[in-house]
Amino acid sequence: MKRVAILISGGGSNMVRLVEAMTGDCPARPCLVLANVPGAGGLARAQALGVPTALVDHKPFGPDRAGFETALTAELDKAQPDIIALAGFMRVLTERFVTRWQGRMLNIHPSLLPKYRGLNTHARAIEAGDAEAGCTVHEVTAELDDGPILGQARVPIRPGDTPETLAARVLEQEHRLYPAVLCRFAAGDRRPLRVP
Predict the structure, then answer these.
(1) Does residue 98 contact residue 125 with C-beta atoms inside 8 Å?
(2) How sure is the predictor about 162, in pLDDT bands with cuts at 50, 70 and 90?
(3) Which of 47, 94, 107, 108 is found 20 to 30 A from 138 (Cα to Cα)?
(4) Are 92 and 144 contacting, i.e. CB atoms less than 8 angstroms apart?
(5) pLDDT above 90 covers what percent of the chain?
(6) Is 13 annotated as a binding residue?
(7) Is 111 annotated as ligand-binding?
(8) Confidence of residue 105 (pLDDT cuts 50, 70, 90)
(9) Helix (H, G, I), strand (E, B), or coil: what is residue 138?
(10) 14 is in an annotated binding site
(11) Is the distance from CB of 183 to CB of 22 less than 8 angstroms?
């Protein structure tokens, strides 16, 4: 059974879906939900689900990313995860941190990678006139929003869509895709999963 630490920065809707999926036949169980923002709504939600939580506020570290990541690593080491799942964790991690967890760290990104790495993905897809958008689960590498793709889900871009309406539909697919990919990954299956 693989131990999974989930890193969040906000309300934790994807985290909740991951925790709910890690039951029954899924060969993974949550061992920690860690936030970098005090008062992140996902911490209370994780506690309500019975998952241990931790907070490593990035702000006191200022530009000292290495110091923040040292504190982050100390909390992760206590939980001894086999897999780290980034779920709305809004910090760019250094190559040093990523290398330590290479092959064991997943992220979900709200675009059909390799399109639209970074922020404002929904607005960029609409502005480009794309017919569809979606989300991607990938292994984390030192390059931002890069790494082997483990799964994608697509949604049509409708006439009159705004970044907000599109984001809401993409989020529904994130909630389906990420748990499915995580459970497959924990079982050793790294073949890309396509969710219709």
Answers:
(1) no
(2) very high
(3) 47
(4) yes
(5) 97
(6) yes
(7) no
(8) very high
(9) strand
(10) yes
(11) yes
pLDDT tens for each residue of 137-152: 999 999 989 999 999 9
The structure tokens listed for 49 are 């689900």
- Which class does domain 2-195 fall in? alpha beta
Helix, strand, coil % in the chain, rounded to nearest 5: 35, 25, 40
Question: Binding site annotation covers 107?
Answer: yes
The answer to whether the annotation marks 120 as part of a ligand binding site is no
- Residue 164 is inside which H or E element, if any? helix 163-186
Contact 45, 12 (CB under 8 A): yes
Three-state SS for 72?
helix
Token readout for 91 is: 């910090």
pLDDT tier for residue 194 given thresholds of 50, 70 and 90: confident
Q: What is the pTM assigned to this prediction?
A: 0.96
For residue 19, the SS3 value is helix
Q: Which residues are catalytic?
A: 109
Cβ neighbours of residue 44 under 8 Å, at least 6 residues apart? Answer: none
Q: Which residues contact 157 (CB under 8 A, 6 or more apart)?
A: 125, 126, 130, 131, 132, 133, 166
Provide mean pLDDT across the span 97-112: 97
